[in-house]
Amino acid sequence: MHPPLTLHRHPMCAEIIEAFQKCHTDHPIAKFFGECTELKIKLDRCFRQEKALKRKANFEESKKFKERLQAYRKEMAEKENM
User: Fold this and answer.
1) What 3-state DSSP class applies to 5?
2) Tally of structural domains, the chain
3) Dihedral sign for Cα atoms in the order 28, 32, 34, 40
4) What pLDDT is stored for residue 1 in this prediction?
5) Does residue 33 fall inside a structural domain?
6) Do you know which PROSITE patterns this protein is assigned to (predicted)?
7) Does residue 3 belong to any structural domain of this protein?
8) Contact 23/42 with Cβ under 8 angstroms?
9) Pairwise CA distance, residues 15 & 69, whole Å
10) SS3 sequence, 7-55?
11) 25 found inside a domain
């Protein structure tokens, strides 16, 4: 199952989404028999790549946040000791 196919949420996959939706409208019955399967596979790969990029960006952001938090805690500990 894929996430909702909204173009504004998946700019990397916009072309594939449009092609996939067009395939579904052009082949309303054949889509059940594998007509759009290749596009679905491409779409899934694109979503995986997109998710990997988001995961990497979130990880980098969390590392920066942890560093700031540790610096803040260290600063507060030094203030308490004075």
Assistant:
1) coil
2) 1
3) positive
4) 64
5) yes
6) CHCH
7) no
8) no
9) 41
10) CCCCHHHHHHHHHHHHHHHHCCCHHHHCCCHHHHHHHHHHHHHHHHHHH
11) yes
